[in-house]
Amino acid sequence: MRIVSLIPSATEILFAIGAGDDVVGVTFECDHPAEARERRVVSTSAMPEGLSPKEIDDFVGAALAAGEDLYRLDAGALAELDADLVVTQDLCAVCAVDVGTVDDALSYLGCRAEVATIDPHSLDDVLASVTEVGRLTGRVDGAAALVASLRERLAAVADRVAGRERPRVLVLEWTDPPFAPGHWIPEMVALAGGEPTLGVAGSKSSRITWDEAEGSRPDVVVVAPCGFDLEGSTALAVDVRRRFPGVPVWAVDADGEFARPGPRLVDGVEALAAILHPEPGLTAVAARQA
Predict the structure, then answer these.
(1) Would residue 139 count as lying in a domain?
(2) pTM score, whole prediction
(3) How many domains does the structure of the chain reveal?
(4) Does 98 lie in the same domain as 42?
(5) CA–CA gap between residue 39 and residue 24 (Å, rounded)
(6) Alpha-carbon distance 222 to 224, whole Å?
(7) Mean pLDDT over residues 168-184, rounded?
(8) Which of 119, 152, 177 is the last residue of a domain?
């Protein structure tokens, strides 16, 4: 099978279930595992590099209002790769090539590849998508083993934090302007032994004001701006810290462990649990206090 993955989370799933050798095309954002960087890149961003969070928000808002694509699909590369399966998403227009664009391109090229759309809104949905990708690629056993191991790790976190006081946690999915979290992130906070102050599980992230953020009275603030790694989140957390005197402000690997609906969301739950309920001897996690 020849597979093109148009979302980083699907790329991670494919490699994790043993289908990495079948992956022939990826996006410019597919950086985990490192081997994914060796595949041909078939989609790039239309967004200029080096923008600030405010400039990114303005660019995205203007592009969406104008009906413009945020990603460029290399139709020539797609045709040359002669894929049997293309994995994409219909969750967020900001995150990857729109599924309609993919369908139009394949139709124009006369390509008969199957298009699989992943659209998770919760952790259970993410695990179900692992199972589905396993079915589509003939890696059922690998997918089942991965799901079982992820559920075991989640259960271990739940056991560790059971019965403990639950601090109020504000997760910021963006910082300028601030966004409250949605989809699986409020669920991750709850599983890690916290109480999310803003955001609704299963819904989209939502723009809020700083007055609303500060008025939610968090005990802990977690800076997890979509698309930013630990270093990038840490830089943005400096300004956030000034708004919450006396409140611990933590930066996390938002891109790898919070934003992408893949296996590393469980790493994110473990990181949150270590932040909210630290214990001596815990394995180091990708989090840093600002």
Answers:
(1) no
(2) 0.91
(3) 2
(4) yes
(5) 6
(6) 6
(7) 96
(8) 119
Tell me, yes or no, whether 276 lies in a domain: yes
Mark out the alpha helices in the chain (DSSP H runs).
8-16, 53-65, 75-81, 99-109, 123-137, 140-161, 185-191, 210-215, 230-243, 254, 265-276
Residue 251 identity: A
Could you tell me the two tokens for 265? 């969301």
CB burial class (10 A; 0-12, 13-18, 19+) of residue 86? Answer: buried
| Same-domain pairing of 114 and 178 | no
How many angstroms separate the CA atoms of 166 and 169, rounded? Answer: 9
Domain of 49 in residue numbering reads as 3-119
Asked if the structure places residue 147 within a domain, the reply is no
Residue 178 lies in a domain: yes
pLDDT for residue 196 is more than 60? yes
- Report the 10 Å Cβ neighbour count for 199: 25
Q: How far is CA 3 from the centre of its chain?
A: 21
- The sheet that has 220-223: what strands, in order across it? 195-196, 168-172, 220-223, 249-252, 287-289
Rounded to whole angstroms, the Cα distance separating 80 from 274 reads: 46
CA-to-CA dists, residue 12 to 21, 94, 104, 117, 263, angstroms: 12, 19, 25, 15, 7
Distances from the Cα of 228 to the Cα of 154, 231, 248, 286, angstroms:
24, 8, 20, 13
Task: Count CB atoms within 10 A of the CB of residue 45.
Answer: 13
User: Does position 98 have pLDDT exceeding 90, yes or no?
Assistant: no
Check pLDDT > 90 for residue 130: yes
Quote the percentage of the chain above a pLDDT of 90.
69
- Which run of H or E residues covers position 41? strand 40-45
For residue 262, what is the domain's CATH number? 3.40.50.1980
- Kindly write down the DSSP assignment for every residue of 63-77, as one continuous string: HHHTT--SEEE-HHH
- pLDDT at position 78: 81
Residue type, 188: M
CB-CB contact of 90 with 171 (8 Å): no
How does strand 71-73 pair with strand 40-45?
antiparallel
